[in-house]
Write a structure and sequence with these properties.
single chain, 169 residues, mainly alpha, 8 helices, 0% strand
């Protein structure tokens, strides 16, 4: 889960590379069935939870980016005196790292529910940096609310899965 050196990335920026990797892992967790899904989740236990530590790093990295864009948006609203369009605000937040943050937190949620030791480790990481598990819940809940309209059956199934995970977290 480490970002490779620039010479090994072939044209992708480190942020694009991280987003691709996180998207792939989240996609695997969303679409794999029992045995294969368990195999992916077990990877987060390996090497003294190094992948969970990396997810914690990514959570705070992208949370900082989203908080920065939120501050810019608030400043813009104060300057103009007008309320910005909700869709525009959401798209700007997604563009500045919210999408990756949502997927990172979704993966954290999946891994934590699957293994109590992972949850314990992520709690330590979050509390060490003065964060909150409620932030993770709120971000994943926002992700569930904005899954899209293309495939209503998949969206409903995914929302139910996320809500179940949020209850168990």
């Amino acid at each position: 889960m480490k970002t490779p050196k620039k010479s090994q990335r072939k044209g992708l920026s480190s942020l694009e590379y991280e987003e691709h990797v996180i998207s792939i892992i989240a996609g695997l967790l969303q679409h794999l069935t029992a045995q294969n899904r368990t195999r992916v989740l077990v990877k987060f236990d390996e090497n003294e939870f190094e992948k969970i530590e990396r997810l914690g790093e990514l959570h705070f990295k992208y949370l900082g980016k989203v908080n920065a864009v939120d501050k810019v948006l608030q400043d813009e609203m104060k300057e103009s005196g007008e309320k910005l369009d909700e869709d525009e605000v959401y798209l700007r937040r997604l563009d500045k790292g919210l999408f990756t943050l949502q997927l990172v937190d979704y993966i954290i949620l999946e891994a934590s529910v699957a293994n109590p030791l992972v949850k314990e480790k992520i709690q330590k990481i979050i509390h060490l940096r003065r964060g909150s598990l409620e932030t993770i819940k709120a971000i994943v809940d926002e992700y569930a609310q904005n899954l899209g309209d293309d495939n209503k059956e998949w969206k409903q199934r995914q929302e139910e899965n996320i809500n179940k995970l949020l209850e168990q977290f």
